[in-house]
Write a structure and sequence with these properties.
- This protein is mostly helical and 258 residues long.
- The chain is elongated, with a radius of gyration of 21 Å.
- Helix content is 85%, strand content 0%.
- Helix 2 packs across helix 7 and helix 7 (138-167) runs antiparallel to helix 10.
Length: 258
Amino acid sequence: MIEKLGRTLRLKFASFGYICGYFGKLVMASFVFFKQKAARKILTMQLLFTYVDALSICAILAAGIGTAVLLLGTKVLGALGQGQLTYTLMVLLITRELGPLLIAFIVTARSATAIATEISSMVVNHEIEAYIASGVDPIRHLAAPRFIGVTLSVFFLNIYFSIFGLIAPSVIIQFISTMSITDYFNALFTALTVRAMVISIIKSLVFGMLISTSATLYGFSAGRASTEIPIAGLRAVSNSFVLIFLADIFITVLSYLL
C-alpha cells in the first residue's frame, strides 16, 4: 500500500509541470478563441447546460439551506440571547463557505463528467487528430470555450445561490417571528460584509477554473479504447473533488490568517 501510494505521488509530481503548462495554454487560448464562430457557439451551449439548466436545483437547494440555517439559528442562538448572530451565521455559511462549495459540487457532477466524456469520445474517434490535421487548435476550439463557460457558470450560480439563500428565508420568518421583512433585511445587510463577498467570488472563480481544467485535461488524456471514455469521466470528477477541497481549505485558511 505504501509503495503504491509513493508511486502515485511520484507520478503526480512528475505530471505537475505538464498540468501547469496545459493550464497556461488554456488561459492564453481563452483570450483569443472569440475569433472563431464555432467556438462562440460552444460557449453559448456550455453556459446553457451548466448555468441555465442548473438554476432550478440551485434555487431549491439555496432556499432549503437558508431556511434551515435561519430556523436553527433562531432557535439555538435565540435561546442563548444571541439571536442577532443568526444573520452572521447565514452570511458565513451561505455566502462564504457552503455556497461556493455546493455550487462547485453540482457543476462537477453535472458538467465535469459530460465534458470529459465528450472530449474523450472525440479522442477515441480520431476527431482530435482531424482538428490538428486541419490546422485547428483543439485547445482553443474545444477546451477554451468550456473553460470560460464553466468558470462563468460557477461564478454566476454562486451569486444566484447567495441571493436566493438569503432572500428566501425572509418569507419563512414571517410565520415564526414578529420581525418584519424590513427588519430582517436590515439585520442581514448589517451582517453582510465586503470581505465575505470577495472571498465567495474568489472561491467561485478558482473552483470553476479547476473543474474545467480537470475535465478537459482528462478528456484529452484518454486512450484509444472505447473503455477509456467512462474512465476519463470518473477521473475528471474525482480529481475535481480533490482539487476543490484543497483549494477551499487553502483559501479559507489564508482568509483567516490575513
